[in-house]
Amino acid sequence: MKKLIIFTTLLISTLGCAQKEETAFKKEGLDNVMVTTENTPITFAEILKKYEGKTIVIDVWASWCSDCIKGMPKVKSLQEKYPDATYLFISMDKTYDAWLKGIEKYDVKGEHYLTSDGMKGVFGKSINLDWIPRYMVVDKTGKIALYKVIEADDQKLFNTLDKLK
Fold it and tell me: What CATH class has 21-163?
């Protein structure tokens, strides 16, 4: 009986701590104003609308982030393996100029946007951002198909993209 109680307690605490996989972006994240490479404002909702009907791979990164830079070759491999997806790079860089230099320096290919307030800001909080790089996948209907992985070669990322082909 004692073992059953311990097992039940462990099971409940494990299930209670499991991270919820979000399937929709929060309103505050969608309303967050970012900037384009031309330095024009755009909300995250407007960005998603631009790519409606396409599978979107979101890479949240920054040019100052060593893990992001180390992961770029994996991102390029991902882009080669899944060329039909749209690759959306959302930068957490602190300045517009540093962001643009980072895109050029690391030859980052895709669609680029800069958040207005960094990792701990509105957008970061809206996606529970605790680490970068952070990869997410949005399906053709705008639903989040994969909420969080931190490696561009994570099998969950491949599985999700394979399902959405």
Answer: alpha beta
The rounded distance, in Å, linking the Cα atoms of 93 and 108 is 14
Q: Where are the alpha helices (DSSP H) in the chain?
A: 2-17, 27-31, 44-50, 66-81, 96-105, 122-126, 155-163
**pLDDT tens per residue across span 31-71:** 999 999 999 999 999 999 999 999 999 999 999 999 999 99
Read off the tokens for 101: 């230099």
Quick check: 90 and 116 in contact, CB under 8 A?
no
pTM of this prediction?
0.86
Q: Which two tokens stand for residue 14?
A: 């494990």
For residue 160, give every residue at least 6 positions away whose Cβ sits within 8 Å of its Cβ, in sequence order, or none. Answer: 137, 145, 146
